[in-house]
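hi! just following up on the protien thing from before. the input was this:
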Amino acid sequence: MKKNLLLLIVLFCAIHLNAQNLLVNPGFETWANGKPTGWTFTNTTYISQNNLIFTEGATSCKINTGQSNNDISVSQSVTVTAGKTYTLKLSYYIEQGDGEDALISCYFKNSANKAIAMSLEDSLILKGPGGKGAYLFTELGVWKTYTCDIVAPIGATDFVFNVQSSAYSIVFWDNFSFSLNTKPTVYVSKTDLIGFNYTPGNGPSSEKSFIVKGSNLIVPITVTAPLNYEISTFSGSSFDPKNSIIIPQINGFVNSVTIYTRLKSNLTSNTYGGNITVVSANATSSSILLTGTVGPPPATINNSILSLSGFTYNEGDGPSNIKSFTVSGSGLTSGITISAPESYEISIFAHFDFSGSNSFTISQSGGNVALITIYVRLKAGLTKGSYFENLSLTSGATTKTTKTIAFAGAVNLIPKINVSSTTLTDFGYVVGNGPSAVQFFTVSGKEISPGLIITASSDYEISTETGSQFSGTSQLVLSQSSGIINSTLIYVRLKANLTDGSRSGSIVLQTGGGITNSIYLSGLVSVPKTLTVSTGIISELNYLIGNGPSNQQSFSVSADGLLSDLIISAPAGFELSTIMGTGFLGTSNLVLPISSGKVLPTSIYVRLAAGLGVSKYLGQIDVSSNGITSKYIALDGNVLLSTDISGADANQVRIYSNSKNIIVQGAKKNETVELFSFSGKLLQTTKSTGETLELPVQHNSAYIVRINSKAYKVVL
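and the predicted 3d structure came back as:
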């Protein structure tokens, strides 16, 4: 019987000394398909089993987001009982980070699978201030352990054990535990309370408060104030001062009870300290250290935060983003000097006037420094690494009051490809005359692995040599040395033997890690430029005054390889058309649009415009387009003065006719005699012999005879 009783006692002790871990695979020892069994991840790309850095068992879970902008969460849900106390424990090891690397963000759920709102004190230990995720303390290169006790709230059915590795960090996780705690436990929300101050005759001090909770209790909780302090379960005007308060337990539990405390009135000038004790049978007692002063107001510097983190940038891209905090002061004899650490700079302006500033002083007035916002950033020009440094806030000449704010930042080095140009254009040649002229760009890189692959579009070729050494290929691989590719010239040209047309493309530069850059390319393979006109001169565009326009004549034009439309311009007095007999309308300019650089053979009609005065009209038609030599057509036309035979001067020139000839008498020797059709076409030119001149004609019609500047109309 005694043996059985002893066995039961040993078994009972073993159960209570080794509370059951409710988590599956808590030490990440079992893996399948590249991830630990029992756990859920938001992204499995960056997780791996590690047997070099671990704290228990043989392996740990490594999450490496060192070069990724991804936050990776790992979680597991376990069943809980509302009102029970549980102990959470985890171990983590940060190899790389910026101070915001390992995050805890746990919560309870109800039967509807909805998250349950937690009290502030519970959220502080499970999810951080305000119920958001809280970053665990960062200390590179050592294992750290986080543990806390938590009571499952009313309605809770499940607990989600959730942690997170932040972007650009390397964190190892191991030895997770979540177990039922059956030991009598007393919990207080604060470990110390300070600032119970008043000047003589103005007591008591202002109140401060803390939370008391308990679980698995067998007797009530007793809260006892030290000498010179008093406590109450009521606040403000209802404060009921007591030296001791007994909080009853119900079924072993004390839910959250707020206790208010203050420094008693009517005390003499002095500093008063002591501990509030919180005890219950068989539970580890808790205490809260109190500090207060009766006397002149103490010199106080108030800073809104104790630490700032997340100052990051990639090497060469600094400074970092800007963060801020506020500072104020009271009871001061001098201003507050704010001194930034070496790698950081500060300003009282949000976006300017940093200028590498490391220190300045905010003046006091009447012992006070009004609330002011201070802006901070990590300086530009820093090299890769983590930057954990402290800013100091100091006041006082002989007795100094000092506060510090911890900064955490990092400069990352990510793969980077630099090119001297992002666009190369105007590659070109005429069909059959390739390749094009060579152009070039420079490339360099950092953190390149394993090498840099440079690939050109199919119409282009690249080389690290130029001139006769150009060895055209569509792809090159540049080797790195310690991740560095020094500045290298890359030559580019449009390949030979391409057909005509536009040739756009690109050069893509890519590392093994997927980092890319690109250069846009454009070029043109054109056909030979040709411009053809059917004649170089058009004449005999004549008419008698008042009988215009002249007869029309035509020429043909065609072109190939043009870059712009073909423009045909006539001089003043002439007009053009693309339609025989019509469409002139006084037009002296025509535009023939190109199609694929071509103008098909087209007839152009030209004539001397009507309404002109008696004169000879000379000029040229200009046929032109951008980038090709213009062609010209000489024009010759006349507007003639008409004189009937009956009006001829009988003493000088006589013109008459018979059935086959026009007879001219009286023209001086060697004078030019011209015979025109009535439409203005020149039929015959001859020199007068000074005697009778016969001009044969083919048929009866109206003709014009011109001798020097006079014209005579003859009708047969």
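Residues 645-715 form a domain with the Immunoglobulin-like fold (CATH 2.60.40.3080).
The helical segments are 2-17, 120-126.
cheers
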